[in-house]
Specification:
The complex is a heterotrimer of chains A (663), B (303) and C (214). By secondary structure, chain B is mainly alpha-helical. Chain B has helices at 3-31, 40-49, 61-80, 95-116, 120-151, 156-161, 167-189, 208-211, 217-242, 250-274, 283-302, and one strand spanning 53-56. Chain C has 7 helices and no strands. In chain C, helix 4 (93-113) packs antiparallel against helix 5 (125-142). The longest helix of chain C has 30 residues, at 172-201. Chain C has one domain. The chains are: A mainly alpha (663), B mainly alpha (303), C mainly alpha (214).
Chain lengths: 663, 303, 214
C-alpha cells in the first residue's frame, strides 16, 4: 500500500513540478518524464506484491465531502489492472520523451506531461478507490486528462472533433454510472464499495437487473463495446502515439475493471447477465475486427482492434458468468482467468503495436497504409517488434495472446465436454466466435504488417523514413520481450492469477486455485510443443543452409508473369487485400467507392479510393444527434445573448417561485 | 511413448507424399491417361532439395523463414494427430486448439512470405487464402467440439479413441454431418477442387499455388512437403470421424486407417475429376455451409 | 426404425438449407425434388404395419408427384421462360442460410414448449416440420422470381406433409390425398401463371407486377 501511495504522490508531484517549471520547457518535460517513470515503477512493484501475496491492504481517511471517504485499497483484482497501467505507463513515458524530441511546440509538450502524469495517477486512483464518490472523481479526472492529451494537436479540425466526441461519450457514460451508484448507495446506506457488496446479496432482482444494465452501459462506453464504441476510432488516432498506446492498452480496461467490481456488488449473477455479456462480446469482437479490416489508417485500424479485444475479454467474462450461474465452477474459473489474462496481454501487445505505429508515423510521415511498404528493410527493429505484436494479437502460439485465448477455449471445451445443455450452447457460441475472430484478426494483421513492412515502398514517404531513435526502440523491444516471455512462462503465469480470479468471482481462492491448476498441465504441454517447434525450425534452417551451401543462389526480380515494366504501384494494396473478406460479410459494408474511370484513346490519370466510415456513427448517432439538435434548437429562441433579457428571466423565475412558495 | 505411438508418429512423415500420388493416379484414370507414378511427389522433393535457389531482390528474411516455420508447424500438428485410434505421441487436454492454431501459424507465415515478394498476384492469393480460412476455422473447431461433446473428452486422441463404428448406431447423423463439414474444411485448407484448382496455370485464378510462385529449391521442397503433410493430417481427422474402425487390435486398426486414407485419396481424385471449381464468390457460401453442418451436428447432440 | 427416420429428417434439414443457399433456380428445383423423394420414403418408413400395398402405392404416388412430376413441370416452365436462371433474392444467400439455421433453432425451442404430440415418432420430427414451414415462408417472402414462390409453397406443403404423415397416422390416406391434390392444383395454376406472366412481360419477376396497378 505504501508503495502505491508513493507512486501516486510521485506522479502528482511530478505534475505540479511540470506546471511550476513551465518557463523552462525542456527541464519541465524532463521532470515530467522522470516522475512518471519513477511513480510507475513503484506502482508496478506494489501491484506484483499484491497479486502474488494475495493480501488486501487498505487505507481509510475521512473526507469532508458528504458521503465520500478517502478509502483506498489494493487487492489482487486491482493489482491485475494496476500492473499494466504502471508498466505501460512507464514505457510509454520513455517512448514519449523520444517521440517529442525536437517538437516545435516545446511548451505544449511540457504541459502534455502534466496531463500524462495526471492520467496515469487517475487511472491508479480508479483501480484503488473503494468509495463511489472517490471513484467518480478519479474517473472524471481520467476522462479530462485524456481529453487534453487527445486534443494535443488542437490546431487540426479533425483532432478537435475527435476530442469533442470523446468528451461527450465520456460524460454520457458517467451519467449512467451516477445513476448506478445512486441506486446502490441508497440500498446500502453508504457509498463505500464494501458496504455495497455486503448489501448486494440481498438486492431484489428488480433492482439488480437495472443496476446491471446501467453498469454495462456506463462502463461499456469506456471499454468501447459496440454500439457505444464510436469515440474510440476517433480519439485514439488523434492522440500522440504513446498516449494512444496508453489509452488503448489500459485506459479502456478501466471499464472492464469497473464492470467486474460492480458485478461483485450485485449478488449472484442471473443467467441472462452471462448471455448478455457473451452476446456483447461476440458482437464487439466480430464487428470490431471487420471494421478494422476495412480501415486504411494504421491507428484507426488498431483502435478498432481494441474493440475486438475488449470483445474477446467480454466473451471470457460471459463464459465465466454463465458457468457461475449454472454452477459449472471449472468453466467459470477458466473464463474469468482468460479474460483477466487477456486484459494484461492486450495491454502489452496493443501498447507495442501503437508504439510501432507511432514510429512508422514519425519516420515516414504518414499513417496511410496504402502509401507505405518495404519498411522492414528500412526500420528493422520497428518491423520485427511490430511482427511479434501482430502475431500475438492474432492469438498465435507461442506468444501471450494465445495463452489467454487458450484459457477461454479450455473453459469452453470443458463446458462442452461435460456440462448440461444451456452451458454447452454458450460454450459453442464462444468457441465459434473466438475461431472466427482469430481468423479475421489474422487477415487483418497480415494485411497491416504485409502492406506496411513488406514489398516495395508505394510512395515517396516510405522510401527514406527516419529510423526510430533509441528511446523509441527500447520500449518496443521491452514489450515484444514481454509478449514472448508471458507466452513461454504461461504455466507459471496462469496459476498466479488465482487470487485475482477469486476476487472477480467473489469466491474464496481455493476453487480458483484448483481450477487454474487444471490448466497448468495443458499449458506446460503447449510450451513444450512450442519449444520443440523452435528446435525444429533451427534444424530445418541448418538443413537449408547446408543444402544451399554447395549450390548457386541467385537474385532476381519478383516473378511478374512476363510483364516487363512492373512498378511498386502495382502491388496489392490494403484495400484490395481486405476486399474478399469484406464481401463475405455484408454487415460491415458501409464502404464508399470513389473512382475516375479511364476514358478515351489516351486516358487522363485515373484514380480509385475507398473509405469506410463507422456504420453506427453514420446510420445511428449522426441522425440521432441531428434530430435532437433540431428539436432542441427551439429553445434557442429564448436565448438572444442580451443581458437584459437574462435578468428578466431570472426575476420572473424568482417571482414564480415566490408565488409558488407563498401559496 | 511406446512402439505403436512411434510408428503412427512416423507414418505421416513417410507416407504423406504418396497420398498426392493416389489422387493424381485417380485423376489420370478418369481422364484416360496413364498418369505420373504414385511416388512422383518423392522424386520431385528429392529433385528440389538438390537445386539452388533464386530470391527476389524485394524479399527479406520473412520470405526465407516462411517455408521453414510453416513446415515445422505442420510437423508438430502431425505429431498431435492420432492415427488409427492409437494415441498420438503428444496428447493433452484441449490439444485440438493448439492443433488448429498451428495451422493458423502456418497460414500466417505463408501469407506474409507471399506479401514479401511485392507481387500483386501473390497478394491476390494471400487475400483469398485469409478470407476463406477465416470461415474454415469456425467450421473445424465447432465440428471438433461436436465430437468432443459426443465422446466427453477434448483431447484429439481420447476423442477419436471414443469413436467406433458402433457410434453410428446412436449418433450416426452427427458423425455424417461432422464428416461433411470436415470434408469441406479438408478440401479448402488443402486447396483442392471445388475451392482451388491445384493444376491451374492461370495466376489470376489460383489461391494457394500463386502464393508460393516465387519460392524455389529447398524452400519450395519444404512447402511441397508441408502441403503433403497437411493433406495427410487433416485427412486423418476426417477418416477418424467417418470411418472409425476399431477391431481391438492396433495393427489391424492402423491397416484399416491406411486403407481409408487411400480411399480418401481416391475420393478426392473422383471429386476433382467430376467437378469444376466453384466461382470465387460462391466459395464463402460453401464454407458457410460447413459451419452450418457443424452447428447442426451440435444441435442434434443437444437434444 | 428411429435412426432411419432421423436420417430422413436430416436429409430434409439439409435440403432446406441448400435451397436457401443455392443461387441457380435449376439446383433449387432439384433440391425440392430430392425432398419429395425423401418424403415418399418417409411415408413408407412410418407405417407400423410394414409394407402394405397401400403404403407402397401411396409412397409411389408421393415420389412420383413431388419427386418427378412437379420438378419436371417447373423445369419445363423454366426452360420456356428465357429469363436469367438466377434466384435473385432480396436477402443474400449467406444471410438466408444463417436465417435458416436460426429458424431451426427457433422451431426446436418452440417444440420444446409445446405439449408432446401423441403419435410423435422421434423428437426431431416436430421441429423439422415447423422448420420446413418457416423455410417455405421465408423463400416465398425473400425471393423475386415466381418460380421461387412456387418452390416455397411446395416446401411449406412438405412441412405439413411431415406433420400429417407422422402425427396423424390413423387417417393418413385421406389427408395425403387431399394435400396432394391441393398441391397439384396449385403447382399447375402457378406454373401456367408463370408461363403467362413471362409471355406477357418477358420476365417473371413478381416485384415488377406492381407497375400494373392503377
Amino acid at each position: 500500500m505504501i508503495l502505491s501511495l508513493i507512486s501516486l504522490a510521485a506522479l502528482m508531484l511530478g505534475g505540479v513540478l511540470v506546471v511550476l517549471t513551465k518557463g523552462a520547457p525542456v527541464w519541465s518535460a524532463r521532470a515530467g518524464v522522470a516522475s512518471a517513470v519513477a511513480g510507475c515503477v513503484c506502482g508496478c512493484i506494489a501491484g506484483f506484491q499484491a497479486l502474488v501475496g494475495g493480501r488486501t491492504e487498505s487505507l481509510e481517511i475521512p473526507w469532508s465531502v458528504p458521503g465520500g471517504a478517502l478509502h483506498l485499497a489494493l487487492d489482487p483484482l486491482s493489482a491485475v489492472f494496476l500492473i499494466p497501467i504502471t508498466g505501460l505507463g512507464a514505457l510509454c513515458a520513455i517512448y514519449g520523451a523520444a517521440y517529442f524530441q525536437g517538437h516545435r511546440d516545446a511548451k505544449g509538450v511540457a504541459l502534455s506531461w502534466f496531463h500524462y502524469n495526471l492520467l496515469v495517477a487517475s487511472m491508479i486512483g480508479v483501480v484503488l478507490a473503494r468509495n463511489a464518490l472517490l471513484f467518480l472523481v478519479a474517473w472524471e479526472t481520467m476522462a479530462l486528462a485524456s481529453f487534453f492529451l487527445v486534443s494535443f494537436e488542437h490546431g487540426k479540425a479533425t483532432v478537435r472533433t475527435a476530442g469533442w466526441i470523446y468528451l461527450i461519450a465520456c460524460h454520457l457514460g458517467t451519467a449512467f454510472l451516477l445513476a448506478l451508484f445512486a441506486i446502490l448507495g441508497e440500498r446500502a446506506g453508504s457509498l463505500d464499495f464494501a458496504a455495497m457488496a455486503q448489501s448486494g446479496a440481498a438486492l431484489p432482482a428488480s433492482v439488480s437487473r437495472w443496476a446491471f444494465v446501467l453498469a454495462l452501459l456506463g462502463f461499456g462506453t469506456k471499454a468501447g463495446y459496440i454500439p457505444v464504441h464510436v469515440w474510440l476510432p476517433e480519439a485514439h488516432p488523434a492522440a500522440p502515439s504513446h498516449v494512444s498506446a496508453l489509452m488503448s492498452g489500459v485506459m479502456i480496461k478501466t471499464g472492464i475493471y469497473g464492470l467486474l467490481r460492480m458485478l461483485a456488488c450485485l449478488g449472484a449473477p442471473a443467467p441472462w447477465w452471462g448471455w448478455c455479456l457473451l452476446g456483447t462480446g461476440l458482437v464487439s469482437g466480430i464487428l470490431g475486427v471487420l471494421f478494422a479490416l476495412a480501415q486504411h489508417d494504421i491507428k484507426r485500424l488498431l483502435a478498432y482492434h481494441s474493440v475486438e479485444n475488449i470483445g474477446i475479454i467480454t466473451i471470457g467474462l460471459g463464459v465465466g458468468c454463465i458457468g457461475l450461474s449454472y454452477g459449472a465452477q471449472g468453466v467459470a474459473v477458466l473464463g474469468f482467468a482468460g479474460a483477466l489474462l487477456h486484459v494484461l496481454n492486450h495491454a502489452v501487445f496493443k501498447g507495442l503495436l501503437f508504439l510501432g505505429a507511432g514510429a512508422v508515423l514519425h519516420g515516414a510521415g504518414t499513417g496511410d497504409i496504402d502509401h507505405l511498404g518495404g519498411l522492414l528493410k528500412r526500420m528493422p527493429v520497428t518491423g520485427v517488434t511490430f511482427l511479434i505484436g501482430s502475431a500475438a494479437i492474432c492469438g498465435l502460439p507461442p506468444l501471450n495472446g494465445f495463452v489467454s485465448e487458450f484459457l477461454i477455449y479450455l473453459g469452453a471445451f470443458q463446458g462442452v465436454a461435460s456440462s448440461p445443455g444451456v452451458v454447452v450452447a454458450a460454450c459453442v457460441a464462444a468457441i465459434a466466435g473466438l475461431a472466427l475472430i482469430g481468423g479475421l484478426a489474422a487477415a487483418c494483421f497480415t494485411k497491416a504488417f504485409g502492406v506496411i513492412f513488406l514489398g516495395e515502398p508505394r510512395s515517396e514517404h516510405a522510401v527514406h523514413p527516419h529510423p526510430a531513435s533509441r528511446g523509441m526502440r527500447v520500449p518496443m523491444l521491452a514489450l515484444a520481450a514481454v509478449c514472448v516471455l508471458i507466452g513461454l512462462s504461461a504455466p507459471v503465469v496462469a496459476p498466479g492469477l488465482a487470487n485475482a480470479v477469486a476476487g472477480a468471482m467473489n469466491t474464496p481462492p481455493g476453487a480458483a486455485r484448483a481450477g487454474l491448476n487444471a490448466a497448468v498441465s495443458p499449458l506446460a504441454w503447449v510450451v513444450g510443443v512450442s519449444a520443440a517447434g523452435l528446435a525444429l525450425i533451427l534444424v530445418l534452417a541448418a538443413l537449408r543452409k547446408r543444402l544451399l551451401a554447395a549450390r548457386t543462389v541467385g537474385a532476381a526480380g519478383t516473378w511478374d508473369c512476363g510483364y516487363v515494366r512492373p512498378t511498386a504501384r502495382m502491388q496489392y494494396t490494403a484495400s484490395s487485400f481486405a476486399q474478399p473478406v469484406l464481401d463475405v460479410f455484408p454487415l460491415a459494408r458501409g464502404t464508399r467507392y470513389r473512382q475516375v474511370q479511364p476514358a478515351g484513346v489516351l486516358p487522363a490519370p485515373v484514380s480509385f479510393s475507398t473509405e469506410t466510415k463507422d456504420l453506427f456513427r453514420n446510420r445511428f448517432y449522426e441522425p440521432f444527434f441531428k434530430r435532437t439538435a433540431e428539436v432542441l434548437s427551439w429553445f434557442r429562441r429564448a436565448q438572444h445573448g442580451r443581458v437584459q433579457l437574462y435578468v428578466l428571466y431570472l426575476a420572473l423565475a424568482l417571482i414564480v417561485l415566490l408565488v409558488f412558495g407563498l401559496k | 511413448m511406446n512402439v505403436l505411438s512411434l510408428t503412427t508418429l512416423l507414418l505421416p512423415f513417410v507416407c504423406a507424399p504418396a497420398l498426392l500420388g493416389i489422387i493424381n493416379k485417380t485423376k489420370a484414370f478418369f481422364a484416360g491417361r496413364k498418369g505420373v507414378p504414385v511416388l512422383q511427389a518423392y522424386f520431385e522433393l528429392w529433385k528440389l532439395l538438390h537445386k539452388g535457389a533464386v530470391y527476389s531482390r524485394t524479399t527479406t528474411w520473412v520470405f526465407r523463414a516462411g517455408p521453414m516455420i510453416g513446415l515445422a508447424c505442420v510437423m508438430l500438428a502431425a505429431a498431435l494427430a492420432p492415427f488409427g485410434g492409437v494415441r498420438s505421441a503428444i496428447a493433452f487436454p484441449c490439444d485440438l486448439i493448439l492443433f488448429a492454431y498451428l495451422f493458423g501459424v502456418m497460414r500466417f507465415v505463408t501469407v506474409l512470405a507471399a506479401l514479401d515478394t511485392g507481387s500483386s498476384f501473390e497478394g491476390m492469393g494471400a487475400s483469398r487464402e485469409v478470407a476463406f480460412s477465416a470461415l474454415a476455422e469456425p467450421a473445424l473447431l465447432v465440428g471438433l467440439a461436436a465430437v468432443a461433446r459426443l465422446t466427453g473428452s477434448c483431447s484429439l486422441s481420447d476423442m477419436f479413441q471414443g469413436l467406433s463404428l458402433g457410434t453410428y448406431l446412436h449418433a450416426g447423423p452427427v458423425l455424417v454431418l461432422v464428416g461433411g463439414a470436415l470434408l469441406i474444411v479438408f478440401l479448402t485448407e488443402n486447396a483442392r477442387i471445388p475451392v482451388d484448382d491445384p493444376n491451374t496455370h492461370l495466376e489470376l485464378t489460383m489461391i494457394h499455388e500463386v502464393m508460393v510462385l516465387d519460392h524455389s529449391g529447398p524452400d519450395f521442397a519444404f512447402i511441397l512437403y508441408g502441403a503433403a503433410l497437411k493433406l495427410w493430417v487433416l485427412g486423418s481427422l476426417l477418416i477418424h470421424v467417418v470411418a472409425p474402425v476399431r477391431t481391438g487390435h492396433a495393427g489391424l486398426d492402423i491397416a484399416a486407417a491406411l486403407c481409408a486414407m487411400a480411399g480418401l485419396g481416391v475420393l478426392v481424385g473422383i471429386i476433382e475429376s467430376c467437378m469444376a471449381r466453384l466461382r470465387l464468390v460462391r466459395v464463402p457460401r460453401l464454407l458457410m455451409g460447413a459451419v452450418v453442418l457443424s452447428a447442426l451436428a451440435f444441435v442434434l447432440l443437444l437434444r | 426404425m428411429n435412426t432411419s427416420i432421423d436420417i430422413i429428417m436430416l436429409v430434409l434439414i439439409v435440403t432446406n438449407l441448400l435451397l436457401l443457399g443455392f443461387s441457380q433456380l435449376k439446383s433449387c428445383i432439384r433440391t425440392v425434388a430430392c425432398q419429395g423423394i425423401a418424403l415418399g420414403v418417409l411415408s413408407l418408413l412410418v407405417n407400423e404395419d410394414g409394407f402394405t400395398v397401400w403404403s407402397v402405392v401411396m409412397s409411389g404416388v408421393v415420389i412420383g408427384l413431388k419427386g418427378v412430376i412437379f420438378p419436371r413441370l417447373l423445369l419445363g416452365a423454366l426452360r420456356e421462360t428465357n429469363a436469367r436462371h438466377e434466384v435473385e433474392p432480396y436477402i443474400g444467400h449467406m444471410a438466408s442460410t444463417l436465417a435458416g439455421f436460426a429458424a431451426l433453432a427457433a422451431s426446436a425451442w418452440l417444440c420444446s414448449r409445446l405439449p408432446a404430440f401423441p403419435g410423435r415418432v422421434t423428437p426431431l420430427v416436430a421441429p423439422v416440420a415447423f422448420f420446413m414451414v418457416f423455410v417455405g415462408l421465408f423463400v416465398i417472402v425473400s425471393r423475386k422470381k415466381a418460380i421461387s414462390q412456387i418452390l416455397g409453397y411446395l416446401v411449406m406443403e412438405n412441412g405439413m406433409y411431415v406433420f400429417g404423415v407422422v402425427i396423424l397416422r390413423e387417417m393418413p390416406l385421406l389427408v395425403d390425398l387431399a394435400v396432394l391434390l391441393d398441391a397439384f392444383a396449385a403447382v399447375l395454376v402457378m406454373g401456367v401463371a408463370v408461363y403467362h406472366i413471362n409471355r406477357a412481360f418477358d420476365h417473371m419477376d413478381v416485384d415488377q407486377l406492381d407497375t400494373l396497378k392503377g
